[in-house]
Specification:
Low-confidence stretches: none
Number of strands: 7
Distance between the termini: 43 Å
Largest sheet: 4 strands, antiparallel
């Protein structure tokens, strides 16, 4: 019975379903604004309203209105900011992540 336990655990780990990929963000309408994101360190994923939009530094188009931008990276404190995107306008957001250790 003891020999079966490691095999059972190995099978359970290998059989765990993968997390499905996120669907792409919706296409913005004709009045979309542009969000420009400058972050240190570079290369972190940027989310708008909980949906991954790009990897900083980057820019993306999004429908007008209020949006919550958030950035998370292992070893750093989470960052978020609410922005108001106006029709056909550009919003520039700069952030410097702070180490959590």
């Amino acid at each position: 019975m003891r020999a079966a336990l490691p095999m059972l655990l190995a099978c359970a780990a290998a059989c765990t379903p993968a997390v499905p990929p996120q669907p792409p963000p919706p296409e913005p309408g004709p009045q979309a604004g542009t969000v420009v994101v400058e972050v240190q360190p570079a290369g972190v994923e940027v989310m708008a309203d909980g949906v991954v939009r790009c990897r900083a530094p980057c820019r993306f188009r999004i429908d007008p209105g209020p949006h919550r931008l958030s950035i998370r990276k292992v070893g750093f404190m989470p960052w978020q900011e609410d922005v108001e995107v106006r029709p056909s306008a550009e919003v520039v957001v700069s952030a410097a992540l702070v180490g959590s250790h």
